[in-house]
Write a structure and sequence with these properties.
- The structure holds two protein chains of two kinds.
- Helices cover 43% and strands 8% of the residues of chain A.
- By secondary structure, chain A is an alpha/beta fold.
- The radius of gyration of chain A is 19 Å and the shape is globular.
- By secondary structure, chain B is α+β, with helices and mostly antiparallel strands.
- Among the domains of chain B are: 29-130, Uridine Diphospho-n-acetylenolpyruvylglucosamine Reductase, domain 2, CATH 3.30.43; 132-249, Uridine Diphospho-n-acetylenolpyruvylglucosamine Reductase, domain 3 (2-Layer Sandwich), CATH 3.30.465; 252-365.
- In chain B, the strands form four sheets. In chain B, strands 4, 5, 6, 7, 8 and 9 form a six-stranded antiparallel beta sheet that branches. Chain B has a six-stranded antiparallel beta sheet with strand order 10-12-11-16-17-15.
- Chain B is globular, with a radius of gyration of 24 Å.
- The chains are: A alpha/beta, B alpha+beta.
- At the A-B interface, helix 2, helix 5, helix 9 and helix 14 of A face helix 1, helix 3, helix 5 and helix 13 of B.
Chain lengths: 329, 523
């Protein structure tokens, strides 16, 4: 929001104002100042090593909200990943939630040429019902194809702070170039894709589906609409206005806080993928729901459905299934 | 291209910002050289930790746990606690304070850490990180009150209240002040001319006394303790819960008036406060060149009433009219074009923050506390914040502002003044030896003098000299200060006199025999 396109500041610019805490799901759940981005900056300013703040680095869910909140315009999203990279160089063993070899393996399927390419990602890719429902929305007037190679291995490698194979990235990026628009379910990939494919139109599933009146008409004031946090924060300046317009139109409730950052369950994080309960994602969902009078929860990110279901007896529906009136996803 | 090179390029492209160890000449490398010479020596620390650990209280003493508390928002006082406790209940704090009395371990309380004179910095001993006690316990929409744990930040409280269409009355505009910390010093907002300071909106408290008793207090029950703890600078107990008044949430309508004379602007500010002409009012300046009186309203009716009855009495200009006058001035004073350039730049970057489209609905600001607070951090925040202030009665205020402004001009090229009125609720005992000036009746006024420090490396001595000159005005004129603790505690006796300070010191000693609670702040 504040940083514009100029090079963002590093941790040494942290004044310790603590505004980043207010949007941090880890702090909200644990109350532990030492696990926050502010604490990591202060520790590094004081000369601490990455090993000394390993627990704090590993607790970060990489939702990206802190970068939006930071009034100093510090590039926190990049810094959080860089900390993982540095820590990986020092640590003897990886946490249990780090991705294993099978996840980091490149898919054999190739991408076909299409005007619209849908990168379903790990979870949606495994859920035929939701995936097909989403595809149906676009089939009327657009040429859309489901991506065979959705870059999941790249996303997980980067999120874990592990070394990235340049050739693999080049193959992936080249396969995306023919498409005019990419619909990318994995919010994590939005930020790097914008760097690798400047000018390419990159949409999240939410933004893509909400462009249809037929989808929007199913949303109302009794819905809690859960915006996928990583993609939202990666293009915040534009999307905050997009969702604000929709809020006025639908009068829905959302997971946006007063600073207009998206409260995250963390379900899409590496930790959440391993264990939603242990990583606090269910508790985070409960905090988002607390004090709200809603009858239904609509999610953009299928992983969020898994976090919300144990936290509520209200129906949890993926946006792609809204038109079917289906309460499962 | 070799594989290794290709990988490195991609990694570099992705990671714009690299974290590096602190440079050798960094101020943070000298943290060990505490800025307070009276750092506690750690005697009996281990026994103290064993004692409270045996009672279920966890002490965090690792570098990652303590280093985040190395300074406060002022950034000039540096100190580290021996350990940190994140209490989850009043009982935890009770155990800590009982043991601290026995082992004579200093205990520093900290909410958002937004003090500027080191009041929330621990120079050894134990730090109570109160931000862990941040639950909203009860909202009573019929009685329009909320009961909350006191470590909660006002912004967190607003998030919860908003789900019921409610809002707190007034709080500092910075997002990360805690309720407990604010009640201990006052709490000023731009609606304070109507609603008073935050502390005056408190109905009751749960307090852990310095000797560890857990006590509920209100105007009916233990009123003496209530009066000591509110505006008490953390000397007479740790606030763990508070019951506060709330109100319906409303977006606000803002209006700006521009002045080139400080005196005229302050007179109009006082006029608005005296006539209750607006729901919000305050002055924000760019040096003493562009003086902005902002007024705001909770409803269309209030705005209409202002336009009909009071608007014509104000001598400020609209933005275009003021801009033309300024253009005329600088055209005839071309040697001051650099100053004009600064004013224009500041105007162009600052004002759009107050009308960001995602916070504007129907020409009203929604979530004004977020809008103002984010602007405060973005344009006035930094690793060092020097904000001496003066609090005066209505009669003395204009002179105090003008004298303070002269000091700012002497020391800094760029600075801001922030003036606001504070409605008093009668003659409360809590006002004695507080930020409320002793001679104020009905209304007090405060002015913050804030230099723009960014990109200029002023020495600590230079900044301290500036602060001293501002504080000396207070001593000379018989004023008070919003921030009179911590590193400027030497002014407490000068400002209030030995008799009053000794009276409070005696009360403190009775309440806190080992003088362990927030010992470096006042006494």
């Amino acid at each position: 929001m504040f940083a514009g396109k100029k090079k963002k500041k590093g941790y040494e610019a942290c004044s310790g104002c603590g505004v980043c805490l207010l949007s941090c799901p880890v702090w909200h759940r644990t109350q532990a100042m030492s696990l926050t981005r502010k604490a990591r900056a202060k520790a590094l300013q004081g000369g601490a090593s990455f090993g000394e703040i390993a627990h704090s680095i590993d607790s970060c869910l990489l939702c990206g909200a802190c970068e939006i909140a930071c009034p100093e315009g510090i590039g926190l999203a990049d810094l959080n990943i860089h900390q993982r990279q540095e820590l990986n160089r020092q640590r003897a063993e990886y946490p249990g939630w780090y991705p294993d070899e099978s996840v980091l393996k490149e898919k054999r399927e190739k991408n076909t040429k299409a005007e619209f390419l849908f990168l379903a990602g790990e979870m949606l890719g495994k859920n035929n019902e939701v995936c097909l429902a989403i595809m149906e929305h676009f089939k009327g007037d657009k040429r859309i194809a489901l991506a065979g190679d959705d870059g999941q291995d790249i996303a997980r490698t980067m999120e874990a702070g592990l070394p990235l194979d340049g050739e693999r990235v080049e193959r992936f990026v080249s396969s995306l170039k023919p498409a005019g628009t990419l619909i990318v379910a994995e919010g994590w990939l939005h930020r790097p894709l914008r760097k690798w494919l400047p000018g390419k139109k990159i949409l999240g599933v939410g933004e893509a589906l909400l462009s249809y009146t037929a989808v929007r008409k199913h949303l109302g004031p009794e819905d809690l609409y859960v915006i996928e946090s990583r993609g939202y924060h990666a293009d915040h300046a534009r999307l905050v206005l997009f969702y604000d317009r929709l809020r006025r139109e639908t009068r829905w409730q959302t997971n946006l806080d007063l600073q207009r950052t998206a409260s995250s369950t963390g379900a899409s994080s590496l930790q959440g993928r391993k264990d939603l309960e242990a990583s606090g994602c269910v508790e985070n969902a409960g905090k988002i729901l607390k004090g709200r009078d809603v009858k239904r929860i609509i999610v953009e990110d299928l992983a969020d459905a898994g976090a919300f279901r144990p936290a509520t007896d209200k129906p949890v529906v993926h946006l792609g299934l809204l038109e079917r009136g289906n309460s499962s996803s | 291209m070799r594989d290794g090179d290709r990988k490195n390029i991609l990694m570099t492209e992705y990671n714009i910002n690299k974290e590096k160890p602190a440079p050798e000449n960094s101020i943070w490398k000298t943290v060990g050289a505490q800025t307070n010479p009276s750092r506690w020596d750690g005697a009996r620390w281990s026994s103290f930790v064993d004692h409270i650990s045996a009672r279920g209280v966890t002490v965090h003493a690792g570098r990652a746990d303590t280093s985040v508390f190395v300074s406060d928002a002022g950034g000039l006082a540096l100190g580290m606690p021996h350990g940190v406790v994140r209490p989850s209940s009043a009982s935890d704090i009770s155990e800590v304070l009982k043991a601290a009395q026995e082992y004579e371990v200093p205990v520093t309380t900290r909410g958002g850490g937004l003090t500027t004179e080191g009041e929330s910095v621990a120079f050894g001993g134990l730090l109570l990180d109160m931000s862990s006690m941040n639950r909203v316990l009860r909202i009573d929409p019929d009685g329009m009150t909320v009961r909350t744990e006191a470590g909660i930040y006002w912004h967190q409280l607003a998030e919860v209240l908003r789900r019921d269409g409610l809002d707190y009355l007034s709080a500092p505009l910075n997002l990360t002040s805690s309720v407990g910390g604010t009640l201990g010093v006052g709490g000023i907002d731009i609606n304070s001319p109507r609603l008073g300071c935050s502390a005056d909106q408190c109905l009751s408290l749960k307090v852990v006394t310095p000797t560890g008793e857990i006590v509920e207090c209100s105007t009916d029950h233990n009123p003496d303790l209530l009066e000591r703890v509110l505006l008490g600078y953390g000397q007479f107990g740790v606030i763990t819960e508070a019951t506060l008044k709330v109100r319906p949430f409303t977006p606000i309508i803002m209006k700006y008036f521009y002045y080139s004379s400080l005196r005229t602007a302050v007179e109009d500010l006082q006029f608005i406060a005296n006539e209750d002409a607006a729901d919000y009012s305050g002055i924000l300046t760019i040096m003493d060149k562009a003086i902005n009186l902002l007024v705001a309203f909770d409803s269309d009716e209030r705005e209409k009433g202002f336009n009909l009855r009071w608007r014509r009495h104000l001598r400020g200009h609209g933005e275009i009219n003021f801009g033309l006058r300024m253009a005329g001035y600088y055209l005839t004073h071309p040697w001051r074009l650099r100053e004009a350039s600064y004013l224009i730049g500041r105007r162009l970057t600052l004002f759009p923050e107050f009308s960001r489209p995602e916070y504007m609905h129907d020409n009203k600001i929604v979530d004004r506390t977020v809008v103002f607070s984010r602007a405060v951090w973005k344009f006035w925040g930094g690793s060092k914040m020097v904000i001496p202030d003066l609090a005066a009665s209505e009669e003395k205020f204009i002179e105090a502002v003008e004298r303070g402004n002269e000091v700012c001009r002497k020391y800094f090229r760029h600075y801001t003044l922030y003036c606001v009125g504070i409605k008093l609720s009668g003659r409360r005992e809590r006002y004695e030896m507080s930020c409320i000036p002793p001679d104020a009746r009905g209304m007090a006024y405060g002015c913050e003098f804030e230099p723009m420090l960014r990109d200029t490396d002023y020495s600590r001595d230079y900044l301290q000299s500036f602060k001293n000159e501002i504080y000396d005005i207070g001593v000379d004129m018989g004023l008070s200060y919003y921030r009179f603790g911590g590193m400027m505690k030497g002014y407490v006796r000068k400002a209030f006199g030995d008799e009053l300070v000794d009276k409070h010191r005696e009360m403190k000693r009775k309440a806190d025999p080992a003088m362990i609670l927030n010992r470096d702040v006042i006494f």
